[in-house]
């Protein structure tokens, strides 16, 4: 049951009705409804992995209590135990075969043949996300930032809340748990914003991302037969595909959550309007970037131990971020490449110069900002080539064709004009909404009542007109 399916629409509607029928003062009953719904939602993917989710939940629930109640010398033992088991499970399901294959390759090159076999392991959906939920929770307790949650229903819901369970955003206990414990009343305004955010998320997923995917797959899956111009167009469209796919999911997740009176942290802040790569990473997958900053980068020393150590820490963060996305060298190289992009800004102390919102005053400023955005986008597109390619050799072949005379050839396969026009429309809408929470948040204030309904009708109509076979969200594989 994926977000862009009719079954999910029915599921959310049923949960919404049951949830708000319960007396608003019975917050625990509301949380129990959401928890049961979350377990049903996850169990429909694969009920066997539901037990793994429950085990991970109980592990961190009891670990948090033990860390809080133990004496100083035993707190670290419980913390290490929880982290080790969590990362051990994540390693086994996500990276075991990767290391086995690479060990065999390494020793084979040394003339040694190891009798090691890979396993037929299915990756539990969402394990990277709910594992990080639990890790941040026990670490925050160890750091005395929060007290452990004593109510098992509240904590279980924090870990397995269905809008964010399978692909984030990666929530913090400091943000989500207080909301789960407070009384919630239905708000038409909040629910209406939630519906608008869901609609926009569905639009950019079904209409933009899925249509870009048709061309991208046709080019990348047969890259040896495609010329440089086709590969470049596909690379640009993949940049929009992955953005609209993942931010589309995040918009739907946040919108659905608003229907239940719960606000999720913002996961995307119009990253393709960034003026440098540092700003891009402050706006792309914000919950993951901030997680690595708070729980890896800062503990490593951050920027407080000199430039050299700072550079090393940046490389570590980006490499781990790449590896988090999957067990393939392409992801690791993608992380390494983004670190290379970032380091010059760090060394020249320009990594935090674009913290303000974009306001264009005069023509010169418009030209400068446009150049900065396009250059940053170009760097990101080159990085996405490694992210999308099956292996590093394939990625370099694609890049070599793009940076050759083939870039001026007619594409061996042309994208649909409708796809390009839709991307342009999406970019324009997001540009004029770049300082809002989500793209069509303030559409009511910009358009008259008649135009507003026409706009909503066109969005809904496009969902049915361009909808094809239901396609999974890219980040479900991570």
Please specify the SSE layout and strand pairing.
Layout: H1 6-21, H2 27-43, H3 47-69, H4 72-109, H5 127-142, H6 152-160, H7 162-165, H8 173-181, H9 188-220, H10 228-259, H11 277-283, H12 286-297, H13 307-325, H14 329-347, H15 363-388, H16 392-402, H17 417-432, H18 443-446, H19 449-466
Helix pairs in contact: 1-2, 2-6, 3-4, 3-5, 3-6, 4-5, 6-8, 9-10, 9-17, 9-19, 10-15, 10-16, 12-13, 13-14, 14-15, 15-16
Instruction: Tell me the number of helical segments per DSSP (H or I, 4 or more residues long).
Output: 19
Tell me the count of domains. 2
> Any low-confidence stretches, pLDDT <50, length ≥5?
none
Major sheet description: none
Mean pLDDT: 91
The rough form would be described as globular
Q: Label the structural class.
A: mainly alpha
Radius of gyration from CA coordinates = 23 Å
Helix content: 55-70%
> What's the total count of β strands?
0
Strand portion, in percent?
A: under 5%
Distance between the termini: 17 Å
- What is the string of SSEs from the N terminus onward? HHHHHHHHHHHHHHHHHHH
